[in-house]
Write a structure and sequence with these properties.
Helix content is about 35%, strand content about 30%. The chain is built from 4 helices and 9 strands; from the N terminus they run E-H-E-E-H-E-E-E-H-E-E-H-E.
């Protein structure tokens, strides 16, 4: 039975390269001379997070702008980043801001995908399997219609369609 997986996973090699480029640019820019501004990528198992460090709230916003520009240049969708966390003071005038990198389809997004597939009346089934959603159907044409539908309906999240099977 034909199927494909709906995934949410950025290109981690390009993400790491973008972080290295940001740190290199911060080191060479005059307005960051003598500051402790930097971006760190932490990897714990499959979870990856970014931590932005700077001397002030204004510098954090500049670091974030540089990061978003480098990610866009390297082809990493900026919708993978969740920078809704508050800026924290860490002593003296230093501040930091955690930025979560979205990986894996969470329960809420999985339910949205399932509902969109059900409401479409296309003859396919969507099943949540861990951090992916597997969509199966009898015809490949139905699967292609489902991919087009999901691209239209779930536009706020950079989902990827992978692992097609016949």
């Amino acid at each position: 039975m034909p199927s494909f997986d709906v995934m949410l996973e950025p290109n981690f090699v390009e993400l790491r390269n973008a972080v290295e480029q940001v740190n290199k640019e911060i080191g060479t820019r005059f307005d960051f001379k003598g500051s402790s501004a930097k971006v760190e990528l932490t990897e714990k198992g499959t979870a990856r997070d970014l931590m932005l460090y700077a001397d002030s709230d204004f510098q954090i916003s500049q670091v974030k702008d540089i990061l978003l520009a480098k990610l866009a240049k390297r082809g990493v969708d900026v919708r993978f980043l969740d920078d809704s966390a508050k800026i924290e003071k860490i002593g003296g005038d230093k501040v930091r801001q955690p930025v979560k990198v979205k990986v894996g389809v969470d329960a809420e997004l999985g339910k949205r995908i399932q509902q969109a597939v059900k409401q479409s009346k296309i003859k396919v089934q969507a099943a949540i399997q861990g951090d992916i959603v597997r969509v199966t159907g009898a015809k490949r044409d139905d699967l292609q219609l489902t991919i087009a539908l999901l691209r239209r309906e779930i536009a706020d999240t950079p989902i990827r369609f992978d692992n097609p099977r016949d």
